[in-house]
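Listing S7. Sequence submitted for prediction.
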Amino acid sequence: MLKIIPAISILVLISITACSQTGSDPMQVEMSDIIGLWNSSENKGAKTDVMYTRITSDGSIVEYDFDGDDVDNGLQCYQIDSGSVKNIGKNRFLVTADMHANKQFEVELELLDAGHALKIYFLDENDPAKTLKSQIWTRVADDTLLDKEPSCHTQ
């Protein structure tokens, strides 16, 4: 009987370890946590503006905005814009891009669902303690999803 107790204890410890949440601390987001392709689509009323955002290990950010969705009503191609993202503090990132009216702005990030989702808090440039809006992006499993999609710039 005494030999069984250590074996059961080891099994319980293995079960706890296997079931424990892995991944990053949502309160400490690093560049390595956000690298990849994200579905960054936005709902505009009853319509969806289909967008994807790719973040690379060198800090490049590329936004793919599908021109043929119900919001844009354009061609069956992607408007592609690029910029950069840089970690400037605890969960704070500076985005520099031509894709938005403000060419440079700060965001605060939070990892959700063990890193499969990312919540972006858009901060007021006059008062960075104030959030203007937030958005949730979901990680796209197939990182090559947009590799063969047409760019509107080449049509």
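Caption to Listing S7: primary sequence and predicted structure tokens for the chain studied. The helical segments are 4-19, 31-34. The two ends are 76 Å apart (CA to CA).
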